[in-house]
Amino acid sequence: MTIEQAALKLRSREVSAVELATESLRMIHEQQPRLNAFITITDEVALEQARRADDDFASGIDRGPLQGIPYALKDLFNTAGIRTTGGTKIFADHVPDTDSAVYEKLRAAGAVLMGKTGLHELAYGITSNNPHFGAVRNPHDPARIPGGSSGGSGAAVAAGMVYFAMGSDTGGSIRIPAAYCGCVGLKPTYGRVSRFGSMPLGGSLDHMGPMTRTSNDAALVMNTIAGYDSRDDSSSKEPNGEFVKAGFSLKGLRIGVPENFYIDRIVPEVAEAFADALRRAESAGARLTPIRVPDPEAINVAGRVILLAEVSALMQPYMHRRGDFGADVQALLDQGRLLAATDYVNAQRLRRKAQKEWAVLWRQVDVIFTPTAPIFAPLIGQTEVQWGETEKEDVRLATTRLVRAINVLGLPALSIPLQTKALPAGLQIIGQPFDEDLLLAIGSLLPQ
Amino acid sequence: MTDWKALAAVRCPDIPADAVARIVPSLAALESAFRPLAKQLKPEDESAVIFANVQERGE
Fold first, then answer.
1. Are A210 and A222 in contact (CB under 8 A)?
2. Are the Cβ atoms of B48 and A349 closer than 8 angstroms?
3. A38, A60, A189, A389 - which has most CB atoms within 10 Å?
């Protein structure tokens, strides 16, 4: 059932919010031993919030389509009185006394919090194989990673534990688990959703966004969580509008199809499913336009320099507990500490240059289609991807290869499931700044 | 190219030598990809992060 469907049933009294929450908790507890999608399950909070939603319905108070809907937050959104770990031993006992902006808005909308989902430590990685809270597992094959860093959110949505979950995306961390778990994930434009009260990773790269079963559901969540927040210096004053775009058709839509970079080193099954998605869009009236995108590999390199430096600067006060970080995060923190300040500044200069070069593309096309990840979900513990006879690629670099540049550029990007036979894969739809409504409308018209 | 081991010994002596040895290949690869890009920058290329002199207002 989608949010839209559940919202209708709640209003026709076919089901109550307490019944939805009880069923959601049952699913979570049943699947938690297999998937480890949650760090904290908030049974009491969930039932209390569900009772309040039912009371509001009974009193004729309707706070919108999320009222009474069970959801989860990645465990880096502050929740007053509920521990928020960031997936790290350093903050394992951290209980914030204020809420994140996202939680404030979702509570005000009457949504019902089921718990805090597992993630890669500090959201600094793509496996969600967490040394402190255990590995999150992929619902389609528990021997595989769900992707990350929002792996618990992706697993929880894909396994039907919740109707939606919130994630964060600094180098692909919403879109990757959406692709590997087979759900929808939206990384909004930088500044569109307030970062206030969410644990930062790379401040100039962090984006908060929804993970859902359908694009329409993601639009409903965006209607609630987007908007200017004076407490977040990066928050945009761009008007929101309505994220559900009515009466939209693909007819005449100009879809950019990269001829470079995004077609290299893709596993054949993903490439076939991607080609099939293009054919479907074209047969629905869209115009496919071959384009050459300005060097995403250079943007990825600049993005890695920016991220390494920003995270290490942020975590500097905790370096006296260096040994408390997992080995992979520790290695990244160490790398960031050794970079020169001039490299960080030059990476930010390359970023601005790339932003200008990409802006030109939007004269030719409305959106760009690419695969989200070039591979299917790797096995837990897998460190390399083999290409052909001799070439090997680090799993982290392969997984982030097609998504990281979009964080550097701050553009909105949606991942929706591709039609595959075995494991899930994702179609990434990249748009101009603040075009989330267009991406979600396109997503709602393509099979999911 | 940077002597990462020597740099780490001076700047971050708390990082054990074996940990430095493990990250040197990643840093060297990143440096070799990044340096040619940085060389292309022109003086007029501004940073994406620009200081804005915003008046803070009490709320």
1. yes
2. yes
3. A38
